[in-house]
Structures are given as C-alpha cells and as structure tokens.
Design goal:
The protein is built from no helices and five strands. The protein has about 90 residues and is an all-beta fold.
C-alpha cells in the first residue's frame, strides 16, 4: 500500500507593515525583483498579504515567514510561521 505524501505549502518571507489593528491579523509586504522583458531594467514589485497571528507577537517592521493555509476569513489565506525581530 502506497502512502500519500501531503504537498508542501507555499512559504513567503516579508516585512510586517501593519500589526493588530484588527485582532490576530497582520499585514505582510512581500517584495520581489522583476526584470522588464524588453529593456532589462530591474524594478521592485510589492504585494501585501493579510496573515493570521494567533499569539499576537509580531510587530511592525519585523521580518516574518508566512505560510499558505485554508481560508480563515474573507481576505486571510496565510498564517504566521516564524517572526524574527528586525
């Protein structure tokens, strides 16, 4: 009998830009570098994700890792995995 292996969930590293203005929720900004296809110029593109912080330990400016999870609310689909102080 073959055992099914669960797929790994996507993890992203970013910076907390807003913390606990709503209970147990943080907003994390993910920056990535994109190269323009024609001109080759590098630009930084940012995306913001709402993440669940059960223990309410993350503060603004912290470097954190978030992980994909089931929908927790209308806009939250990520949860806090680790948070190292910046």
């Amino acid at each position: 009998m073959e055992t099914q292996k669960k797929p790994t969930r996507r993890q992203l590293n970013g910076t907390v830009v807003s913390a606990h203005k709503t209970p147990k929720t943080i907003v994390v900004r993910i920056d990535r570098t994109v190269v323009h296809p024609k001109y080759g110029k590098r630009t930084i593109v940012s995306e913001k994700f709402m993440a669940h912080d059960e223990t309410m330990t993350a503060n603004e400016g912290d470097k954190v890792t978030i992980e994909e999870t089931r929908p927790l609310s209308a806009r939250k689909r990520w949860r806090l995995v680790t948070g190292a102080k910046a």
